[in-house]
Amino acid sequence: MAAPGAGDPVDAESGKAPLAQRIDPTREKLTPAQLQFMRQAQLAQWQKTLPQRRTRNIVTGLGIGALVLAIYGYTFYSVSQERFLDELEDEAKAARARALERASGH
């Protein structure tokens, strides 16, 4: 009987295909053919998920850009509506006028 994972498409005892195992190429000695096959499988998997990842990246970028523009626009809107400094200036003018009135009145 062959070793498990040695190319048997179906396990004789359970009748199921063997599961893929994670292999660390730095620890295990792999042949150049095995390394080439791993590279091909990784490339195929990467190419398979590329369109989905690209779409997701575009949507995320547009969402972040819209959020930045919304914050930027809201900041300009709120600053243009701000009357805080105008009120302070009015109060300062009134205080100066009262001070001048008191000084000239005495």
UniProtKB/TrEMBL annotation:
Entry function: Required for assembly of cytochrome c oxidase (complex IV).
Gene from which the chain derives: COA3
Main location: mitochondrion
Record's keyword terms, sorted: Membrane, Mitochondrion, Mitochondrion inner membrane, Transmembrane, Transmembrane helix
Region of interest (Disordered), ranges: 1-25
Domain called Cytochrome c oxidase assembly factor 3 mitochondrial coiled-coil: residue spans: 45-91
A GO BP entry: mitochondrial respiratory chain complex IV assembly
Transmembrane segments: 58-77
Oligomeric and partner information: Component of 250-400 kDa complexes called cytochrome oxidase assembly intermediates or COA complexes.
Domain of life: Eukaryota
Compartments reported by the entry: Mitochondrion membrane
Keyword Mitochondrion attached: yes
GO cellular component: mitochondrial inner membrane
Similarity remark: Belongs to the COA3 family.
Keyword Endoplasmic reticulum listed: no
Membrane topology, from the record: Single-pass membrane protein
PANTHER family for this protein: CYTOCHROME C OXIDASE ASSEMBLY FACTOR 3 HOMOLOG, MITOCHONDRIAL (PTHR15642:SF3), CYTOCHROME C OXIDASE ASSEMBLY FACTOR 3, MITOCHONDRIAL (PTHR15642)
Protein name: Cytochrome c oxidase assembly factor 3
InterPro entries reported for this sequence: Coa3 (IPR041752), Coa3_CC (IPR018628)
